[in-house]
C-alpha cells in the first residue's frame, strides 16, 4: 500500500492505533482526532487515557521547549546569584583575615617590646620587679612601670610579674585587642634573675650586695680608722667586710697596702699591712685572693699582693709597663688587668696585662690615649676611660680581645676640665666625673653618646660608686668631701646629703647599705650608713 492510502476496512483496535504518514511530515492521528464534529465527546474509555490527560500525539513541541528554557534560565540565575554571594564572602572574609593577621603581628611586636622593657627595668634594679600587673611608660630614655596597663590604639598591654623561685621572676607580656566582636591576645614570657644574689661573682662584695635602705638624706658615721703617722689613704676595695686599702706614705719604707677587719663597723681593726717597695699605691682592685695595685714613685708599675689570708699578706709579683712614668688607675676583668699611666710621648697610656698566673704577668697590648688616664671602669667588653684630653674626656675602648685594643666611642665635654672618675651600671647608665661636675650619660649608641643631665658638687670628683638611684662620691670639696647624689631623674641629678672630713676623700666603695671612704688624713678610713 502506498503512503496516504487506506484499505477501507476499519478494525476498532487497529483504528485507534492507526498512524498515517504523509511525505515530509509526521502526524500521529488517534481515534479522538477523527471523532466527528458535533457528536458528543468520545468516552474516556475509548481514548484509553484519563479524562484530564493531554491527548497522546497532540503535544506542541515548541511549548515543551519554551518550558525547558524557562527552567534553564531559573537555574542559571540561581547559580549566578550563588557565585556572586560566594565571591562576596571570599573578598570580605579575605580582608578580615588580612586585618586579623596584621593586628596579630602588631600585638606580638608590642608584647616582645614589653618583655625587653621589663628586662631593662630589672637590669637597673631587681627591686623594681614588684609582683602584680603593670603598664609601661618611656621617659628620660628609660622604661618604667606605670599603672596597671598601657594602651596603644586598640591594643592593651599588661606586664605580669610573678615569683619563679627565690631569685627569679616570671615576666609575661600580655597584649589583647578586640576586632570584629572577637577578643584576641598574644603572650610572650621570659625569666629575669637577680644575678647579684643568684650568681656568685668572683668577689661578692664588689657587686654591692643589698640595695640601699633607710634615710640617706641623713648619713651617719659608724666608725673610723687611723692607718698610722704619715699614711694618707688613696683608694680602697671592700669584699665581705674586709677592706683592702692603699696608701701613700711620707717615706717610701712605710706600708702601701692594708687589710682591715670591718665586721664591727664601729671599731674597724688592721689585720695586716705591707710595704711593696713603692712610694705608694694609688689604685686597687682585689679579686680571687689577690690585690692588684697601681704603683707610683719607682718601677714596676703593677704590684700583685697575695691577700688570700688577710692576716698574712705578701707580695706575689710585680710588672713594669713603662719606665719613669707613674701608674694612675687599675681594673681587673677576667684574667686581664687594665692598667693606666700618665701621658707619655714615647708609648701608650692604657695597657692590658695577662694575670692568668698572678706570679707571672705578661703584657698583651697597649693603646695610645695621648692624655693622662685618671680612672678606668670595665663593663662587659668595654673599658670606660676618664682622661685629661680636652676633646674626649670619656674614651671607650673595646677590650673583647685584650691582644688588640680598639676605640669604640668618645664623649667631648665642653671646656678644658679633665675627666677624673667613671662608674658604669650599664651602657645606658654611665656616671662621669669631670672636674666639679657629675654627668649622667647614655652610651647605648657608641657613635653618639648622650648627656642626660649634670650637677655641680663644688669640688673635684675623685671616685664614684652607684647603687640603684644613689651615687656616692669621694670629692675634694673642702666642706663636703663625701656626697650622696640622687639620680632618680637622670635629667636633674641632685645632691641629697653630704659629710665633712678633715681632708679630701680619695676612694669610695659600697656593700650592704654601708659606704666605705678613703681619706687623705689620719682618719684614713671612714665607714658610713643611712640613718
Number of domains: 2
| Stretches with pLDDT under 50, minimum 5 residues | 1-35, 48-61, 197-205
Overall CATH class of the largest domain: Mainly Beta
Rounded to the nearest angstrom, the distance between the terminal CA atoms is: 142 Å
CATH architectural group of the largest domain: 7 Propeller
| Structure classification | alpha+beta
What global shape is seen?
elongated
Estimated radius of gyration: 47 Å
Helix content: 10-25%
Query: What is the fold-level CATH name, i.e. the topology of the largest domain?
Result: Methylamine Dehydrogenase, Chain H
Number of helices: 5
- What is the typical, i.e. mean, pLDDT? 86
What is the makeup of the main sheet?
Answer: 5 strands, antiparallel
Share of residues in strands: 35-45%
CATH homology-level superfamily of the largest domain: YVTN repeat-like/Quinoprotein amine dehydrogenase
Q: Count the strands?
A: 35
Task: Give me the secondary-structure topology.
Elements: H1 12-16, H2 31-34, H3 44-47, H4 61-124, E1 132-134, E2 136-139, E3 142-145, E4 150-152, E5 155-163, E6 168-179, E7 182-193, H5 195-198, E8 220-226, E9 231-239, E10 242-249, E11 257-261, E12 269-274, E13 280-287, E14 290-296, E15 302-306, E16 314-319, E17 327-333, E18 336-341, E19 350-354, E20 362-367, E21 373-379, E22 382-387, E23 394-398, E24 406-411, E25 419-426, E26 429-434, E27 437-442, E28 450-456, E29 461-467, E30 470-475, E31 482-486, E32 494-499, E33 505-511, E34 514-519, E35 523-529
